[in-house]
Amino acid sequence: MLETTQEYKEAIARHEKHHIFGAINTKSGERIYLEEDVLKGEPSYKRQCTLSEDEFGIGQMYTGTANITADLPGMRREDLRGGTLWLEFRAGQSEFITLGSWTITDPRRDASGYISITASDCISKLDVPINDNYVGAITLESRMEKVTELTGVTFAQTPREIYEMIGGLSIYFGSRYRNSCRAEVAAIAQLIGGFACDDRNGRIIFKKFGKEPVISIPADERHGVSLAEYTFGLRGIAYDNGYGHTTVYPFGTDKPEPNTAAVITLSGNPYMDISPNQSESDIDRGAKMYLKPIAENLNIPDWTPGRIEYYGDPALELGDMITITGGINGEKSANFLITAENWQFRGAHTLISSGAFEGEGSPAAGAPKTQAQQIVTEINVTKSIAAVELKGYEGVLTDVLRTVAEGGFSCREETVVFVYVTANTAGLGASEVRINVLYDGVKQTVHAVEKSMKNGVMTIHFALNITASAGSHTVSAEASGNAEIQRITACVWGQGIVGEQAVPTNASDYEYTVSGGSASVTKYIGSSVKPSVPAILGGAAVKVIGGTAFKDSDVEFVYIPEGVEKIL
């Protein structure tokens, strides 16, 4: 929580009148003051430290925005674009506190003649590629300097302060730069076990999630509440080396079990210098060196996800833990972790706490929970945890969905598995890049959609949990958009799962036709129960697979080659 005076806290508690003040610094150097009579409507801002309002994660960043409407006669809206918006707030006669600093991105004049302004915080400036092929030991200081050099964004903390937040690890930060400034900052935030956001002054600040409640919000302060009927907690941190080995570092068990618990998994972090060629015991030992301080930072009290609207206090910060008295049934109290907030001047202040659910079906009070929605159940240390890497296919995407990753696994009993997909893309033009996950050939409801701009480098990452029944299963990802996938990593991990390996097959295992330079598979006549369809049959690329090609066979799953355009 932002440090404030006792006078401010008492003014907030007494619900004294709110005041707002602002200023705009234009790119030409002009300073425009925004007194309360100039600001029209209800200025507001939005902040978030997880990619989804509903699903908790670490090492994530989200661009915060502000919106105001101002009476600026004689001012051309284009003179404002690219300028800096500042807003300050106070309650009663207490001191002003800074609400934030944003870059004006979209000024528009409305029908009344006022100018409506949308502005974004410094996180929006991080989507800049790093085209530096230097190979060698790169320090944290060098990486921070590179981000500032390319984006103009500075950091609120020194490298020494960040090292201390990580846990005092004496490490060098990899041998290559990551592909974008956003990826550099996200990797550091992962090691902290927290997140990165704007510090209200236009700088990047790394933060941990709060362990102690900073305030208590009683029932009579709330305008509305929607709390899940479950508690959510973190029970471990895991490292996936991308080669089928996962190390889990469990937290202590000195607190009550939550209804739903998560194990946060890190993969592809370049600062965790662990060679995949080591023995499993050496990989575990090295991973636990990094995971231990992250686990200590994440060992926070369990909380109740949901959202509340109340009188409001913009001194609250992302990552703050607060207490909701009255709880779910009017008698109990609940911890509430702020992972997103929507503040409106002299309006309701909405606080959002993410948990184990995403999108529609979030279990607000009274809503049913299903096992498929749970992100993870408590890790059972008596079972082995395995990671199964899916085969990825890089290359240029089109408007037609194509397979970009595929693989399979089997399990002897029902278990919850997790599918993690990370795709590094380069935009070829303005477009939406869409990635879907298919489980046993059925598209799942969770998918990623991101905006891609020409020459823009972007990382798409999301996770999906699935309750898998006993037996063999296939998992694949398909993508479309005007972009190129430069690298894709997809992995399934869970307790007691075993990766399935496809068996290469040849033309004699198939009946097929060739027409117009492309081959169509009509029937599989081979003996393998896990066939991999050849990319070429009869000298032609396989483009079509008939819908009954594997009917009446013993095939458990099929690997489809890149280039197949239709499965009838």
The main β sheet shows up as: 11 strands, antiparallel
What strand order characterises the main sheet? 2-1-5-6-7-4-3-18-19-15-11
Would you tell me the overall average pLDDT?
82
The stretches of 5 or more residues where confidence is low (pLDDT under 50) are 357-384
For the secondary structure, the number of strands is 37
Q: If you had to describe this structure to a student in words, what would you say it looks like?
A:
The protein has 568 residues and is mainly beta. Helices cover 11% and strands 42% of the residues. It contains six helices and 37 strands. The strands form eight sheets. Strands 2-1-5-6-7-4-3-18-19-15-11 form an eleven-stranded antiparallel beta sheet. Strands 21, 23, 25, 26, 28 and 30 form a six-stranded antiparallel beta sheet that branches. Strands 20, 22, 24, 27 and 29 form a five-stranded antiparallel beta sheet that branches. A hairpin with a 5-residue loop joins strand 6 (97-109) and strand 7. The longest helix is centred in the middle third of the chain and has 19 residues, at 280-298. The model is unreliable at 357-384 (pLDDT under 50).
